[in-house]
Design a protein that fits this description.
Helix 8 crosses helix 13. The protein has 448 residues and is α+β, with helices and mostly antiparallel strands. Strand 2 and strand 3 form a beta hairpin. 28% of the residues are buried. The protein is built from 15 helices and nine strands.
Length: 448
Amino acid sequence: MDHQASQNQVRVQLSLPSHLKTTSVDFTFSIEHQPAKDNHETFEEPLEVKPEPVIVPAITSTPTVVEFEQPKPSQPTSFEDYYNQHLRDHRAKSISAKTCNDHASSAQKFDSFLSETHPENSMIDVIENNKTMLEDFASWLFANRKNSGPTVTRRLTHVLMIANAMIKYGDLQKIGSELLSSKLIKTLHRQIVGEGDATDRRIPSLNEVQSIAGAVDKTLKHPYGTDAPYFWEGWIQFSAMYGPRSRDIVSVDPERPEKRGLRKQDVYLNTLCPMADVNNALNEELHSSFGWLWYNVGKDHSSDTPRILIPMSKQICDWVKYFMSKSPANDDRVFPGTRDDPDSFLSQRPISLRWKSLLEKAGVDKRIRLSEGKGNVIAIRKAAANWWLLQTAKHKQDERLAEKLSHYLLHHAEVIVSAKHYLSVQAAVLPVMIELLPTFPVLRTSVP
């Protein structure tokens, strides 16, 4: 310790041990002298020392850095909460609210499965280390929720989507369970539900479709008021003939640009095929007596061929032209429905209620829908593809061509692998459609 003194101050410098030599500290002590009370009194009061610290950075040593352990974020405990907190808003930018709700429903069912089958284990532990988790979840859905095969497949897909997002965000290390093939899912379904279950039926008969069309009467007032019966007859005929997804033709969600339904600009009343490349590929002009239309496939977000071109029959041509004439000039949709007009407003709930009333009146299976839905739906869309497949095989004696036409109408991956391949498919199937179209049964004829 070194010290210096000057008048009434003492300066003391303390040197710290080498392992603490990050700084040196100077203390300046002030010495205050209190004079005696009189000349004869001896000074007996102690000196008062007031330290005045002055911190002087040291330059002779490297500062020691002390690292504190960061608190670890708590692990997610609920699959449904994780989806709603971290994924839902992002997903809602590209999918409907209904689909987001379905994702959350799958997550909630997965939470229920974990609580019932793995009450002692954390969610993370089960997902990362249980090799049969997905198979067990599928079996649980079949046995406890009575889900169909397609519904189980959808639930599994949603669970994997959320789990993969957790891996991406660092909340999960891996998925320990092996993926399930469609064959294994069907096997589980047969083992748990049994053979020959009614939920396996996927295709309605044309007689059933005709009964639904026959149930349409003048009591229907939605949508389009007094034009509602004609609207429903045409829509059922269109669905049975071409098998579109219903919202690709009649949209109940017009605010989404990819689901605005059939547009006026895509209806061609000229008989010549509007695709020059198809005519060139055939080396001749292809004509459809009642014109053409094509529509965008709302679910196709990735291929180079998101549109389907089809020749129109007379019945479909008359139906499309009639509702085009009713559509406001400033609306590009063939079937618009606005909130300003309650009679024409196209909304999912009233449309679904009218459809259910038609099924009940027709006395057919309550699971029949215009196009594919969730669960054990029986889709008229599949009846259309099946009719074209069988009729093409019968009249053309060409099973490959028949399958190609069926895949074309359903817009399956087999025909949309590339624009060049899609063009060759169109050149092959469109002449067959024009030839066989007059043989398709008219389900019901009505003139408004």
